[in-house]
Amino acid sequence: MSFSKGRMGSLERRLRMLEETNDFLWKEKSTAEDILESAITLGSFDTSLNRLDDPGPILEEIVARARTILPFKAAAVYLVSEDSSFAQAICVPPGHAAEIEEIVSRRIEDRTFAWALKRRKPILSGLSGPEPLHLLHALSTISRTRGMFVGILGEEWQQLPEYSLALLSVLLSASAGALESFELYRNLRSLNRDLADRMSQLEESRRELEEYRKFLEQQVERRTMELSRANEEMKMEIAERMRTEEDLRSSEEMLRLAVEGMGDGVWIWNGTTGKTDLSPLSAEILCGDDEDPASCILESTSGEAWGRIIHEDDRERLSRKKARCLSGEVPAYSAEYRVVGKDGKERWILERGRVVRKDREGRPLAIAGTHSDITGRKKLEDHIRFQATHDFLTGLPNRFLFEDRLTQVLARAKRQKGKAALFFVDMDDFKKVNDRYGHLAGDTLLKEAGSRIVACVREMDTVCRLGGDEFTVILPAVAGPGEAESIAGRIMDAFREPFLLGGDTIFLSLSVGIGIYPDHGNTVEQLLANADEAMYRAKGQGKRICFLSPRNTSSS
């Protein structure tokens, strides 16, 4: 009986041990589940990253969550600045900011800070000595280090579970990813704003050009109506002049007063004296604001003196038109020419003239006309013409002007039975640079690339941008493939120098396909297609410079 009691007592003790073990295992299971749930929630942030303008809310959430994992008396986050230094971005509570700043300075000096950056795990410091116990943990992603978490621990930290440090690592790893996502969203918003601004500027420019075009059309229509009306009035006045000399002088005075209100200068040539009478406005238009009007009027009444202020390239053309009117071959003429002031500045003048009185044989006795300053219109026309034929980004000739220049070069080479060359240039791996640094940096790189190519070719050559990272070079009058390859070599050498983008050094190589006229084609289309194919062969074979054999039979 005593044996049975002893055996029962032993079984009861074993049963209690099993129950205690079972309770402990259930607690461990519950704890593990809580840890897993905490680890999962640590990876998500309540803040909408794509709507933030600064990382403040993210940093506040990081510090708040870290203090729920470990009993930090104070915690701070340091972020990497543009110059790669670390700056304190937040400290909770703020009163410990100076204390943490001193701790970080000492850890930088003893290189513990650098060690923590490399380990990407929590580093405890201050276990012995006067400093409070503190923890350092890097905020790092796969791509780069985003910052450093620094926290001062309280005395009760030793009573925490072992998994607390692991949970902190999970939190800070997710936090680094959140900071990286915030930066990406912010950069994307900035790029979108820049793009929207550019589109708005382009639309505004288009609208202004359209409004100015309509304004010019209205001005031309109004001026045309005014001139037509003035011409009719002039005919009536001339008919009246033929009756008597006194009526003629009176009519000339009335005509001058009538036309001076049009905004154009008026002039009358007298066939008897050979002199030209200018209105004050006409003298001002011809001579400019910097000239002495009285002296200008005196000089301009002489045809020889008048001719001296006209640009030398325009004198012969204007003289021919005037001569036809003076001879009676045509009743009127219109000419655009440049005048050069004493300050060397050029202005464009529109001169119109019409025979207003003839003798019995039909020879002109008087010619009247107007002067208009069209300098502003000419500048606008030149600006519009340049935009239509040149690349907006690099200022180089675009595809439209490229085809025109190449057509002219091939026609000249055909007449002279000479040779010409066409380079098709493509930058290798430009898309990777564009993807990494953004389109604005890519645009800067394209402009620098265009400038380097221009600096390597001859003055007679033409460098064009067809689009993207594709450039062409038109070389008229080359001796043969050897000279073309020498120029291409200079371009390749220029690209061995690195490009600087945002403080980074970028090396880019080129692939150049060369087509020689007439060996590789007689037309623009043939030569361009063969140069393009040669470029792709150069890229594929790693030759960098490639010719095609005559008539595109094989690469050389």
From TrEMBL:
Pfam families: GGDEF, PAS_3. Residues 185-247 form a coiled coil. Residues 418-551 form the GGDEF domain. InterPro entries: Biofilm_reg_signaling (IPR052155), GGDEF_dom (IPR000160), Nucleotide_cyclase (IPR029787), PAC (IPR001610), PAS (IPR000014), PAS-assoc_C (IPR000700), PAS-like_dom_sf (IPR035965), PAS_fold_3 (IPR013655). Residues 333-386 form the PAC domain. Keywords: Coiled coil. The keyword Translocase does not apply. NCBIfam families: GGDEF (TIGR00254), sensory_box (TIGR00229). This is Uncharacterized protein. It comes from bioreactor metagenome.
